[in-house]
Design brief:
The protein is mainly β. The strands form two sheets. Strands 2, 4, 5, 6, 9, 10 and 11 form a seven-stranded mixed beta sheet that branches. A four-stranded antiparallel beta sheet has the order 1-3-8-7, with no helix packed on it. The protein is globular. It starts with a strand and ends with a strand. The model has no long low-confidence stretch (mean pLDDT 94).
Length: 117
């Protein structure tokens, strides 16, 4: 089970930090990722972090502004979002999947992020 928190309303240029807590015991190493879906648009990949935390990946539109990290226990992922833009407005979803693949098998319920201009 994944539980996201940290969404909210912020002005353009502001910051938010999203948190995703995974519960239960994993049977194998898993990557954690964030996706987002804006109204009327398809869900898009935002960022991913490997099991070890040593490999991260971002969509081009957030590079240099967003940072994904993982705690030492490996069951919480954070998404630090800086210099937010109105186009970052979306529901943000956390997901986990096998570390060796790019597939995601477990999804959170989502948290709303709204950036006002």
């Amino acid at each position: 089970q994944l539980v996201e928190s940290g969404g909210g309303l912020v002005q353009a240029g502001g910051s938010l930090r999203l948190s995703c807590a995974a519960s239960g015991r994993a049977s194998s190493p898993y990557a954690m990722a964030w996706f987002r879906q804006a109204p009327g648009k398809e869900r898009e990949f935002v960022a991913r972090i490997s099991w070890s935390g040593g490999t991260t990946d971002y969509v081009d539109s957030v590079k240099g502004r967003f940072t994904i990290s993982r705690d030492g226990a490996k069951n919480t992922a954070l998404l630090q979002m800086n210099s937010l833009k109105p186009e970052d407005t979306a529901v943000y979803y956390c997901a986990t999947g096998p570390d060796a693949t790019r597939s995601y098998t477990t999804w959170g319920q989502g948290t709303q992020v709204t950036v006002s201009s």
